[in-house]
Queue: 2 jobs
Job 1
Amino acid sequence: MELPFLTIKKAGELIKGKEISPVEITKALLKRIEEIDGDLNTYITVLGDSALESAERAEKEIAKGGYKGPLHGVPIALKDIFIMKDVPATCGSKMLENFIPPYSATVTQKLVDAGAVILGKNNMDEFAMGSSTETSYFGPTKNPWDTDRVPGGSSGGSAAATAASLCLGSVGTDTGGSIRQPASLCGVVGMKPTYGRVSRFGMIAFASSLDQAGPLTKTVEDSAILLNTIAGGDRRDSTCVEAPVPDYTQSLTEDLKGIKVGIPKEYFVDGMDPDVEDSAKQAIEVLRDLGAEIVEISLPHTEYAVLTYYIIAPSEASSNLARYDGVKYGYRASDTKNLIDMYKKTRAEGFGEEVKRRIMLGTYALSAGYYDAYYLKALQVRTLIKQDFDEAFKKVDAIVAPTSPETAFKIGEKTDDPIKMYLSDVLTIPCNIAGLPGISLPSGLSSTGLPIGIQVLARPFDEETMFRVAHAYEKNSGWSGKRPPV
Ligand code: GLN
């Protein structure tokens, strides 16, 4: 049995039945990471010894009859944006290169409490700003389907590691598409829960009204298993909602009778890759065959979503990133003349180009005299975008559309043109602006053999319908479980 290729579900069952041991599967993954991650660069930190120790602990607990559930002994990775006690957390930045957090994020702690083995920390765009993982201070991650191409971003390390079977699943973050877009480009399942569903305590902040954590996995069922563990209220995050967490695996039925699926005409944009468009259209037919009623809908303010996002996200980032001042933790420049000089040099040397661009954009948008014209206006447009979805969800139960207008692009192709890079997220950003749950899953391969994804969006806190539609499609599409050549 080739252990790295197992799903979370299958590995969990085999571990429970004592047919495989947590130590065995952890060793197999560490070996594979050693063999192929030098080239792919999906990890910033690999936890060799401590992963083996937790695998040994899990093994003993299970042997003594203390089985904790489907993640017990299962090796999982984390985007390097979630802090874990005593393990470096870089957020892809030189600014945090030597930062060792003294406590763990709620997401990390929940996984540890469920008995999961944390294998390491995945590569990412610096401070989650990017769509290609090329802004990482630790070098770009390569797409396992074609190593000349990007894996998407910002959770590109998580998506590529999952696709290349260097972990059984990972947890990433999605502010404007950073889970769903790399999932689509790497041929895996990536889901962004409703804003407020998962605690962000200990998750390094980018844009606080948009950021949300979620799983990257090989299957929809694995996504539901991971969300079951990480979701739920948390008194340490005031934006995290104290709503009951259903068992999401219960919503995974295979027919879609009685479900109305909306197809937004604005999501079939000019300049879209024809293979992506064809794949989405075929997916719609699969949904229809499964009993879903397909309804054309309109989300008229979609065209303003990217513009709105690039005011709101940088504004919040400029405020959130003010904390990196060289005083309390993180990088500090040496040879400085006085306090102001220290601040300036620390931030000039510690942040990369894209992060500085965002801080400048955000500081400008928030400054006196411009606030009303930019930030306030963006908040007003945000309401209009949200209202489009409210209207649509009066008519339909779920919305299906392509995740990304294109397949994986070449490394270096968009690095000199930030606007082109920003447009990678035209189809994922509206969901974040409205705070909705969304999942991307494989829907085909392009004529050049690259993965294509579709996304399913649902009403706030209705992850169950989202999972149901995604699972039914996955089981009947024939596109699940495809593996890259690495
Ligand atoms: N690519 C988008 C950006 O650069 C989204 C990133 C994200 O979701 N973290 O901001």
Job 2
Amino acid sequence: MAKNIEKLWGGRFAERTDELVERFTASVQFDSRLYRHDITASIAHARMLAHVGVITEADRDAIVKGLGKIADDIERGDFAWSAGLEDVHMNIEARLTEHIGDAGKRLHTARSRNDQVATDLRLYLRDEVDAIAGEILGLQRVLLDVAEREAATIMPGFTHLQTAQPVTFGHHMMAWFEMLARDRTRLSDCRARINVMPLGSAALAGTSYPIDREYTAKLLGFDGVCANSLDAVSDRDFVIEFNAAAALIMVHLSRFSEELILWSSAQFNFIALPDRYCTGSSIMPQKKNPDVAELVRGKTGRVTGNLLALLMLMKGQPLAYNRDNQEDKEPLFDSVDTVKASLQVYSGMIAALDVRRDVMHDAALRGFATATDLADYLVRKGVAFRDAHEIVGRAVRYGVESGKDLAQMSLDQLRQFWATIDEDVFAVLTLDGSVTARDHIGGTAPVQVRAAVSRARAALDAAG
Ligand code: ARG
């Protein structure tokens, strides 16, 4: 039997890897995406090895130069990835040795693919977390603009999707802003745990070379080094944590999508989505479908599924590294791509939203949205809240039977339910009166919405 000549680990093997096994175990078709971070980490590792005298400066220089050339080749599309070389790490290392000879073979001193891949993944994810946080920020700024513009636009607020109380559209937009703000803090929380360096853990136990991990960590911009080598090569909790944060972002966007889909239907007609964010039907000429919102809602299933896949991938693993961990990449990459694309497409769509103020206003006039205001009015006249609730309930029943909203009833009609109701009741029964009255931090009054927008804008500007 032919020896495993091509394999970097072929020494102890007497027969070639089965072809199916080779294909089954290879990861290069997806982990080649890590090439930039793999090369960055290798350059830092080589610099550290020279710094502590494990390799010569000449070897270091050859390695740095050779890796630079490989990065260029890959970027130009001039790099033939080989499944026989399994993964991104061995493809790059083998090519380096082809280019620079023996110096290339020294790069893997004091390192294993186990700490290498964990390091690459953290570097990669650190960048992606920053990119995704940037996309969230972009969408948040769009929401602030819409909220400010629509601070006094009245719409029906819902609970149970039944008309509850009038709210302002700006206030509603600021609710989405708040959810995204928390999403961003979740990303920065998990970034702190991502940004710790596994390199130096080697296969599992550390290495017998006099390495300087702090030196490498500094070169790579890590906040510190992983304190335990077994843990460092093994756990992917940082990937899981990120995916949990990603799943929440998608769940938020999915709920937002559900509203856009409802609101843009002919039955609601609260908003119109820009044509360029919709598609038509191949059979029904009148159709304009909210596909972007629907797809974001649908893609939420993928990202949530990825989270579950990652949790299951981890749950049965004994310490330390196991090949199972290779399965972390596809779900992670898919979540990163999906969340990023969803956020990007969302910003443009929300910025171009056509808000149908009149329709929303008319809708708020139906459904007794100011019933709570009437009850609060009676409380101010000395009625206990529970009694006021009962009285207004009777007035609403009369309204349902007679087809009149509260504000359309005459003073005499209202006095059937409580004798001391005065003319001033009509001010509280209007939509404007209702929203203006909710004038405290977190309330829906237009002044509060504008204040919330400027506070939020100042905070975003201060954060850079
Ligand atoms: N492709 C592998 C992964 O993604 C790299 C580490 C392989 N380590 C090993 N001992 N086989 O996890």
